[in-house]
Write a structure and sequence with these properties.
Four copies of one chain form a homotetramer. By secondary structure, chain A is α+β, with helices and mostly antiparallel strands. Chain A contains 13 helices and eight strands. Helix content of chain A is 45%, strand content 11%. The interface between A and B is large, with 39 and 39 residues. Chains A, B, C, D: Belongs to the glutaminase family.
């Protein structure tokens, strides 16, 4: 992919020229302040090269993109027993919906909506305290990215705890159905810190290489689990906008409310984009458009 | 894929040994009579070869698999204007649910649940009578399969009309929201006949080749539309069991209540399986397991 | 109640001075044309007197008020077996909602939402054709009012059939759950004609006397059934505005989209109001306010 | 009502002979231990007499019956502004449902489902600490019953806090919509203690006299508010069994999961029953039957 450099430069230019950039998440104070127009993209390819465009040095909190890493780690801990507590189906609802949780008696539809991710984090607390669970999470991400400089932004975590009433409702609700082992306060303390892991697009793209099954990178989970995580990213990675993302981009992907998206071209590349302005589904507006353009220009869609 | 013959033989053997085969659809009289244990599989590969195992000569009505062909045809007629009337998101509900239709004011979530497929068929009636619309549909399928012997089974269509109250409810409901142009009786008459198109697995696999973008076959829709139809098959092709299918099989697929499934390995193969016994989601039980095995044995999953 | 004449005159004056009158039902052509400002009220008291104010000679189609008479008649035909097919709980949804019908497998929540009323009409067709069922209905209403001049307006019925897609959806949906015995076309033909029974407020108030258990009037149903119908009118008589009506008026009541409301002061009076402008719940705006005033000025609330 | 003594004795005898008694609430440890067969009834009439039958000295926690007193008290504090935060419509859902809260953006349907009652208690904390709010609540109930011996059972309150995850979910969820002013822990601490107010049926019937507008008793709220509270008790007092209770009993009533029910015959009597075994709606099974019999034998139904 010798043309990848110019392609990314072209995409960055197109994004800067887009009339709309979406709106930064307003319910987390620390995020609301961020300029929604910013943009960065990084691609790590199978031959080990890294291509970038835009603000590729700017760090952002990965937010819900962390759900992918937490899932991979949890499956290593508890194995397929996880699926007793969380489903693998699209929810057809907003990321923080509690409605379906009542209809399905406290079992979240999938691990990428908030309720499901809270259960995943709950499993990471088995036999350890939050600080240790977070240490394990950070080690996993650093190993995936082969980069020990990745850190958590405690100010963002604190800000999210203060405004996290919806997530507290989800945790208590699952507790009432026996689907939360640890205390809601502990699980959410861990969860919000996990969401506050900070990376730039290069670090994030590197951290995603194991999902693209790129050669010569740490293979942290089995090939079968990689396929299944990618499948979940396609069907559930963008909440109630997952169908739209698959339709337009055609790659497994997971978005975060901080504006980051990790996308996977199996066997070919791990891609990270960042632009804080969000679309109606709560996913990065320019990030989604950029990935749509990248898939079109490279032919990397998994759908033909 | 020189090993494909033995692989299919092995799968057919495994399926015959499966302790469970599911239950034939019981709400359509003509289907309820069919032995649920029967099994057939056919694969057409990029080099033009066809491999089969099981009852590959036995014809069955393709039922909801027809929704894929109807969608392709409709997009040719009305283009992306279709998406004004139908969405592209998983529904998270049963195939014949009317609940979400109320919440979303008569706009079906996607073209592969019944409500969405009825809208698609409605577009095929623009400017023509049911007989002509069905003629066009049959021509499209025959051209895709390069096989003029494909027919409609009128007894099955008639049987479905008689027990089609749920679909009549969906049609009238959409009519009440202005999302049905033609009379419910005409649209459903067409729809039930389209579902009663009869093929064996070889014919169905051949009819699906254009979605696998195989070389030297009639390219009936643009590459971009192929990608999008495949994306919809992954996110919505198996109703509220779509996530499970993606998770286990990892291929775009569309099932029918007659026990048929069309699955696509982009660039590699078009696959048809048939086994009338259904699982809890209303998809072929053995057909799904067979595809899971095929994907595992060939490494054809689109997810890595 | 010697003061009732002046009280009604005062209420009529207040209604004429109300800044808002609501909007006439727009989905039925014949109703949309009617001036929403019009107002009439009639009260028949226990001593046999009739008091009126406003346009008490003007006839209007009683629409959903007919559901009360149909229920009384149906209970006479099939008895408490009716409650196997229809519930007695408030729906918490719009009058024409289909959503809850899916959740509750085709059994409507109560006989005063459209779905429930369609089941009630279905029972009236047992053993007879629509013309006979309607004849029975008309006889019942005429006997209740002791007035043989009450008729059906066929133009309104025809107009409703033409725009009745939502009701057709409800009927077919219940059919799919086995909760409709007769053909949807026949049931709805009967239903729409029943809704098109035409009365003025004096006729309607007289027709309601049996529910107020007034002395010296035809007692068409047992005292126990009268109490139960009144209970249903309180909890379910105004759709998802029933709580509001009970809260503000405090009398059993049933509204119709034509602007009529029948209200019952048990042992004291039968009351009919009419004003075609509707509030957000689809109930007569001025009719509701007038009843609120009447209850306040007479102390007739059943709640103390 | 000279016959009231024999009537109550007869009812108590009938209840003892009933083949079923329901099941004691199992999610609150302290309640689960209680024998479901026990029964008591007390009636205070307009002439000041008190009639009883059964275990009329046995105290029980009034649980959700306290919602009526809290509502009366809250309306005194914040007036009709309360209705900005809580509705007056039946919910059509279980008492602890969170589903509708999402659909209606954190505004509970009525003050008698748990979510609504939590908002009501939240208003009682304006300007004071939980201990003070509970003191005010207890003063109100004691004044209503003219009985200073009424107390709170702290062991039951503690037991409910420990198993109150569902209510914590409701509180946090409303907090996320800005419909909870005080901290969930404080509001629920107050709420669970209010539910643990302990009375026997005589005390409860006496506490309800102001709602029956009996002469010579403390009139704690205005006649208009009395009517409105009674209206809410009819439409919403028994959760998703409210329609059934109105249909069968025909009196305003509020049940508690401890097996108590307060019922009001406006102008005639205040009635309390207790029997811990619950029916499918979570209301006292024998208590409901006893009230049905009482209404039938006395003719006290408000519906004629």
């Amino acid at each position: 992919m010798t043309m990848l450099g110019p392609i990314l430069a072209q995409i960055a230019e197109e994004m800067a020229a887009l009339p709309e950039s979406g709106v930064s998440a307003d319910y987390i104070l620390e995020l609301a302040r961020i300029d929604p127009d910013q943009f960065a993209i990084a691609v790590v390819t199978a031959d080990g090269q890294t291509f970038t465009a835009g603000l590729s040095d700017t760090a952002f909190t990965i937010q819900s993109v962390s759900k992918v890493f937490a899932l991979a780690l949890s499956l290593g801990h508890v194995g397929d027993a996880l699926w007793q507590r969380v489903g693998v189906e699209p929810s057809g609802q907003r990321f923080d919906s509690i409605l379906q949780l009542e209809q399905e008696r406290g079992r979240p539809r999938n691990p990428f909506i908030n309720a499901g991710a809270i259960v995943v984090t709950d499993t990471l607390l088995d036999g350890c305290v939050p600080r240790e669970a977070l240490g394990g999470m950070l080690r996993f991400v650093r190993e995936a990215a082969e980069d020990d400089s990745i850190l958590i932004d405690p100010a963002v975590a604190k800000s999210e705890i203060a405004t996290g009433a919806r997530n507290f409702a989800l945790a208590h609700y699952m507790k009432s159905h026996g689907n939360l082992v640890h205390a809601p306060e502990l699980v959410l303390g861990t969860y919000f810190h996990q969401c506050a892991i900070e990376m730039n697009v290069v670090q994030l793209a590197r951290a995603g290489r194991f999902l693209a099954s790129l050669p010569d990178v740490p293979q942290l989970v089995s090939p079968e689990r990689v396929r299944r995580i990618n499948a979940l990213m396609v069907t559930c990675g963008h909440y109630d906008g997952s169908g739209d993302f698959a339709f337009r981009v055609g790659l497994p992907g997971k978005s975060g409310v901080g504006g980051g998206i990790l996308a996977i071209a199996p066997g070919r590349a791990s891609i990270a984009v960042w632009s804080p302005g969000l679309n109606v589904y709560g996913n990065s507006l320019r990030g989604t458009v950029a990935l749509e353009r990248l898939a079109a220009l490279t032919g990397w869609s998994v759908f033909g």
